[in-house]
Amino acid sequence: MIVRLISHSIIALLFVAGSFTAATGAGFETKATYAVLMDGETGDILYEKEGDVLMAPASMTKLMTMTLLFEALKEGRLSLTDTMSISENAWRRGGAASGSSTMFAEVNSRIPVEDLIRGVIVQSGNDACIAIAEGMSGSEEAFAEEMTRRGRELGLAQAEFRNSTGWPHPEHRMTARELAQLARHLIYDLSDYYPYYAEREFTWNGITQSNRNPLLYMNLNVDGLKTGHTEASGYGLVASGEQNGRRLIMVINGLTSERERSEESEKLLRWGFREFKTYDLYAAGDVVENAEVWQGVYDLVPLVVAEDVSLTLTRAARRDMKVSANWDGPIAAPIKAGQEVGTLTIEAPNAPTRHFAIYAGANVDQIGLFGRAMSSLLQMVTGE
To answer: For 143, what's the count of Cα atoms within 13 Å in the CB-facing half-sphere?
Structure first.
């Protein structure tokens, strides 16, 4: 096995979208019980605290409710002008009489889907959520089953939903990492509908309510997503913002007050934008190394990566990053371009080691019978 250390000052001056999981906790502390900071473009986890521990998501659950609705809109199964009924169940369990978050919809009224969207996102209306669940699946229980099923398809391996609102239930659980994954799906795969999350207020039935996301009102370029609070969950927030073309997604939960939620979320997001940078190593097709060839018409073959390779790290971790190419050599001819021949390994402090396949970048034919015989003889004589 040939292992060749590549200078870790090699940086391709190209924007790339590869992936690398960076430091998970170094250099930052938060009062939140659960926290995740994700790079939006790559999905890399930059920071986590109990990120894979199941928790009560409270109203942050509504990201999944909106996912099912937005997917139905995207697929043409619903339109923004369709209407859904506020049943007595939705009114009693999610309306003002329940003491929960509400859009103050009137019982037996029919409300356009677009207004229900704003009722959920801006006003956190439980009545709007239940109306959507009943309108799409016939009952909230059936809708919750669909939430769990769709969550599995999206990679939410632990999430279990028992309602559309986040109302306390001992089996209604998901992780901070899953909330970040769900937010990323909404932002990138359902982008036509994401702007609703940036709206700061909405009026229904003569009552104006403001969006409860505290980061929308700060100088952070935050454009979503959703707060949550119950006695079981504490105060939580899923938020996302973009600075200088770079998007971060943040999840915190388990805080003790609205003020603490606002302060801790601001600190985590500002730290993420300040301390992390994406370093571009290789673009797809770049040559990593040149490998010796055995019995080929050429002595060397270029080794290339098939995908863009980048990593997001703190500046301190970047200084000690190591990149090495590994392959069994010399590589016997014939060699076909695109043939996998080895591995590119990237190591950095406080980050898991990552491996990327490397491939032959050119065809190398085998030399003729006489040449192969002479080559074998030379090896026997010289040992080379």
So the answer is: 25
* Cβ neighbours of 16 (radius 10 Å): 21
At 237 the three-state DSSP class reads strand
Q: Which of 19, 100, 101, 124 is catalytic?
A: 124
Identify the DSSP state of 301.
E
Q: Which of 124-128, 149-153, 223-227, 352-356 has the lowest mean pLDDT?
A: 352-356
Question: How far apart, in whole angstroms, are the C-alpha atoms of residue 10 and residue 292?
Answer: 22
**42 CB-side CA count, 13 A:** 24
pLDDT surpasses 60 at 20: no
User: Each residue of 170-222: pLDDT tens digit?
Assistant: 999 999 999 999 999 999 999 999 999 999 999 999 999 999 999 999 999 99
Active-site residue, selected from the candidate residues 19, 49, 62, 233 = 62
Which residues on adjacent β-strands are paired with residue 357? 343
Last residue of a domain, one of 275, 310, 331: 275
pLDDT in tens, 239-278: 999 998 899 999 999 999 999 999 999 999 999 999 888 7
DSSP for 337-348? TT-EEEEEEEEE
Whether residue 243 is found in the same domain as residue 332: no
Query: Using omega within 30 degrees of 0 as the cis cutoff, is the peptide bond preceding 334 cis?
Result: yes
Residue 197 near residue 226 (C-beta atoms within 8 A): yes
Domain of residue 358: give its range: 2-15+283-382
In sequence order, which residues have a C-beta less than 8 Å from that of residue 62 and are 6 or more positions away?
Answer: 120, 121, 124, 129, 164, 165, 166, 226
Average pLDDT, the chain: 89
What average pLDDT does this structure show over 377-384? Answer: 57
How much is the pLDDT for 114? 98
**Residue 74 annotated as catalytic:** no
- Give the pair of three-digit tokens for residue 322: 């190591």
From the candidates 59, 100, 262, 310, give the one annotated as an active-site residue.
59
Let me know if 336 is a catalytic residue: no
Q: Does residue 29 lie within any of the structural domains? A: no
The continuous run of DSSP H or E covering 35 comes out as strand 34-39
Same domain, 327 and 261: no
Say which CATH number the domain at 42 has. 3.40.710.10
